[in-house]
Amino acid sequence: MTSILLCGCCGKMGAAVQRAVAGREDCQIVAGVDPAPAGSCAFPIYDSVEKVTEDVQVIVDFSHPSCLSPILAYCRSHPGVAAVLCTTGYSEEQTREIQEASKALPLFYSRNMSLGVNLLIELAKKAEAVLGDSFDVEIVEMHHNQKIDAPSGTALMIADAINEVRDNEMRYTYDRHAQRKKREKREIGLHSVRGGTIVGEHQVIFAGQSEVLTLSHSAQSKELFASGAVNAALFMNGKGPGLYDMSHLI
Predict the structure, then answer these.
(1) DSSP helix/strand/coil, 102
(2) Cα–Cα distances in Å, from 33 out to 54, 104, 138, 225, 232?
């Protein structure tokens, strides 16, 4: 039985993780952390991770980028505790902090916990390897009107994966409105749409001469991200230091 500390337990994703765990017998949420506790839960809730007293094996984090450093500090002071970092919107400095911390801590970091999205990324890498610079790449992501960061972490995951295939020679373009020039060859366009209750949709467009190839993924429920996070928590229980992601899980 894997004991989970759920950070961001009172948010929408926190509620989804609770539902995912409720239907399983191989894990349990023993405590939660949320700066603004709301509603009732079957476990104690703290306003900061430092106050947690329960025995924890894995932290599942769907909170806020500002909580990263306290979570890493908790893991350092509790040897053997792993963290599944599902929060999006980390800065470049915070991403480096995760990479550095993983030398001593077992960390699982993915900006999208969906198996389908991670398969989409692999397909995009394959398409880029085959099509090369004869096709332009544009990424379109759509999310609900409450999402704060743009472009989405998943869109950046896709762009980074494609860029790796091109030896990181591509640059990202986020706003063509401010530009009055033709599209450059070595760029990846990223476009964000926010509206309604869209859970998450991503399109990767490869536009060539007289033909267009589009790869797409549509998330129809937050439950799939919650399920992926719980599976990652079970996977991380007992793991040694290192930086893990969905490629290790699948």
Answers:
(1) coil
(2) 12, 24, 38, 19, 19
Interval 184-202: pLDDT, tens: 889 999 999 999 999 999 9
CA 106 to chain centre: 17
Q: What is the pLDDT of residue 239?
A: 96
Residue 128 tokens read as 């880029």
Q: Which residues are within 8 A (CB) of 178 and not within 5 positions of it... i.e. 6 or more apart?
A: none
Helix (H, G, I), strand (E, B) or coil at 33: strand
- pLDDT tens per residue, range 60-78: 999 999 999 999 999 999 9
In DSSP terms, 84 is beta-bridged to: 60, 108
Scanning the chain, the segments in alpha helix (DSSP H) are 12-22, 68-77, 92-101, 115-131, 153-165, 223-236, 246-249
Q: What does the block give as tokens for 181?
A: 């020039």
Q: Binding site: which residues?
A: 8-13, 34, 86-88, 110-113, 144, 153-154
Mean pLDDT rounded to a whole number for the chain: 93
List % helix, strand, coil for the chain (3-state, nearest 5). 35, 25, 40
- pTM value is 0.77
Please tell me what DSSP assigns to residue 153: H
Amino acid at 179: Q
The per-type count for the chain, helices as H runs and strands as E runs, is: 7, 12
Binding site feature residues for (S)-2,3,4,5-tetrahydrodipicolinate: 144, 153-154
Report the relative pairing of strands 211-219 and 200-208 from DSSP bridges. antiparallel
Known binding-site positions for NAD(+): 8-13, 34, 86-88, 110-113
Which are the catalytic amino acids?
Answer: 143, 147
